[in-house]
Amino acid sequence: MADTQPLDEFEHNHNDCIVRLLSEKTNIEALKTPGLGLIDEELLKELEHPLKELTGTSRIEPQEVFKKAIAFLPKLDAKRFVIENILESLKGGENLSIIDQRYRDLGLLSSDSGTNVMEVRSSGLGAELIKRKSFLKRVEIKVGRIAINALKSIPKWIEIKPTITFVGPIPALGFVLEGKGMSVQDLLDTLAEGVS
C-alpha cells in the first residue's frame, strides 16, 4: 500500500509553497515597464485568486487544495499563451496599443482595467515579456508542487498492490491500482472537474 504523508507535513509543505508564491508576487510587483502595466496587472490578479483560495484561516483539506490547484493551472497557461502571442505580434512589427485592444476584445485581457497602453516603442519589450513568461513558468511549477503535495496527503484515493503474472513460462511483476474509498475513475473525474 502506498503511504500518505501526514497532515502536519502536508501543511508545512503547503505553507512553504504559499510563501514562495508570495515571493513571486513581490517579484512581479517590482517589474515596472512602460506599456506592460496591463499585463502586470493581469498577472497579479491571476496570482491573487489562488493565493486567496489556497490560504485560509481554517484547517486546509488536501482534497480541496488539490482541486483548486489543478483548476488554477489552465488559467496560468492561458496567460502564458497571451504573452507568447504578444511577443510574436511585436516581432511582426505591430503596435502595442493595437495588440492590447485585440486581446481585450477577445476577452483574454481584462477590458475593465483602468490602465491604458501608451504609445511606447517595442524595442526592449521582448526581454520584459520573457521575464513575465518566466514568472508564469515559476508560478506553474509552484502550483504543481501544491497539487502534488496535496495528492500525497489524501489517504483514501489509491492503493497499489503488487501482482505476479506469467507471460508464457516467464513470471512478470506488475501492479494493480485499486480504489481505496475512491476508484481510479473517481480520481480521473476529480482531475477533469478541476481543469474544466
Characterization of this structure:
The protein has helices at residues 7-30, 37-54, 62-91, 96-106, 125-151, 184-195, and strands spanning 158-167, 170-179. The protein is mainly alpha-helical and 196 residues long. The chain has two domains: 7-154; 156-196, no CATH class. Helix 3 (62-91) runs antiparallel to helix 4 (96-106) and helix 3 (62-91) packs antiparallel against helix 5. The relative contact order is 0.17. The model has no long low-confidence stretch (mean pLDDT 75).
Give the SSE map.
Blueprint: H1 7-30, H2 37-54, H3 62-91, H4 96-106, H5 125-151, E1 158-167, E2 170-179, H6 184-195
Antiparallel strand pairs: 1-2
Summarize the structure.
This protein is mainly alpha-helical. It has six helices and two strands.
The SS-based structural class is: mainly alpha
What is the percent of helical residues? 55-70%
The number of distinct structural domains comes to 2
Give the rounded overall mean pLDDT: 75
Separation, N- and C-terminal Cα atoms? 31 Å
- Number of helix segments? 6
Strand content: 5-15%
User: pLDDT below 50 for ≥5 consecutive residues: which ranges?
Assistant: none
Mind describing the biggest β-sheet?
A: 2 strands, antiparallel
Question: How many E strands?
Answer: 2
Which term fits the overall shape?
Answer: elongated
Q: Radius of gyration in whole Å, from Cα?
A: 22 Å
SSE string, helix = H, strand = E? HHHHHEEH
Order of adjacent strands in the largest pleated sheet: 1-2
